[in-house]
Design brief:
Elements (H helix, E strand, L loop, with lengths): L1 H28 L24 H31 L5 H24 L4 H27 L13 H26 L22 H30 L4 H26 L4 H47 L1
Helix pairs in contact: 1-2, 1-4, 1-8, 2-3, 3-4, 4-5, 4-8, 5-6, 5-8, 6-7, 7-8
EC number: 1.17.99.9
Subcellular location: Cell membrane; Membrane
Subunit structure: Interacts with CtaB.
Length: about 325
């Protein structure tokens, strides 16, 4: 019964963190960051604001959701630590999920009270993404306790590990460039797609370079993702966790690129822009899962090698 309750709570916490990510994107895309003025955690210095504006509602709602999610993450971290602390990754993920959520909140508060440069604010989404991914992985570990999936039995070669570690690191860079596009208000700096403008190829000013830099980075991510997925299709069809994770990742990165193009074609449609943020969040979560599987493979290999040492020593004697 305890395990079932923990599963439900972990699932709800993961969804709450997803809402935090989308809420943050909504605040940025609607330019609602100053909806509560230079006041935090109060809104315009008041517990209950007297003047209600759409920007205030969006900003205040994001703060409330982030606060509730923070409490949920703290409870989940402690609960998981006590319930499945024997699983190697649990304590690390529990600590990271809460620490990065607090860090995300502090950066948001600092941006409101003192203001921050666009380059610093672009870190905000990436930090929230790490917290979300940690909660997501913690939830998967909780569901994994039933042993319906033996993750430790996976065998991952060095080429696949290179793809996994390289792509998730590069994906984080792409996420940063995308966040920088939003915070610099460069989403429509290039009125055409995939080129910046129909009459010229080379960008001519900073906002265009930021926009085209993000597009090129996303295109390279797609190419690398295709190569990794082809390798998974050839070598890992019998290992469903690896195979389907790459298939899902490829679909998500393609949806990410399609929605990125549609943002330009629809003149920054809000729902498409939020879908853009949703797809990258899900993609990073799946890549984080692949990373955990790769680390587990390393651990299992080292553990297996260590177990053979006493036998080797005995043979030499």
């Amino acid at each position: 019964m305890l395990q079932r309750s923990l599963k439900w709570f972990a699932t709800l916490t993961t969804l709450a963190m997803l809402f935090v990510l989308i809420g943050g994107a909504l605040v940025t895309k609607t330019d609602s960051g100053m909806g509560c003025g230079r006041s935090w955690p109060l809104c315009n210095g008041q517990l209950i604001p007297s003047e209600i504006t759409p920007e205030l509602v969006i900003e205040l709602s994001h703060r409330v959701v982030s606060g509730v999610a923070g409490i949920m993450v703290l409870i989940l971290s402690i609960w998981a630590w006590r319930a499945i602390g024997h699983i190697r990754e649990t304590k690390f993920l529990a600590a990271v999920s809460f620490i990065f959520l607090v860090l995300q909140g502090l950066i948001g508060a600092a941006a409101v009270v003192w203001g921050q440069s666009d380059f610093v604010l672009a870190l905000h989404f990436g930090i929230s993404l790490i917290s979300f991914a940690s909660v997501f992985l913690l939830t998967l570990l909780i569901f994994e306790v039933d042993k319906k999936f033996a993750a430790e039995s996976l065998v991952i070669d060095s080429k696949m590990k290179f793809h996994i570690y390289g792509i998730i690191s590069y994906c984080y860079i792409v996420v940063y460039t995308g966040a920088l596009v939003r915070h610099m208000e460069a989403s429509l700096a290039c009125p055409s797609w995939p080129l910046c403008a129909k009459t010229r190829i080379i960008p001519v000013q900073l906002h265009e370079w930021v926009q085209m830099g993000h597009r090129i980075a996303a295109a390279l991510l797609l190419i690398w993702m295709i190569a990794a997925t082809v390798h998974a299709a050839k070598q890992y069809r019998q290992q469903a966790a690896i195979y389907w994770s790459w298939m899902i990742s490829l679909i998500l990165v393609m949806l990410q690129i399609v929605t990125g193009a549609m943002i330009v074609f629809t003149n920054l449609n809000l729902y498409i822009a939020l879908a853009h943020a949703l797809f990258i969040s899900c993609l990073f979560g799946v890549l984080s899962y692949l990373t955990m599987l790769a680390f587990r493979s390393n651990y299992q290999k080292n553990e297996s090698s260590q177990s053979k040492l006493p036998k080797l020593s005995a043979t030499m004697k």
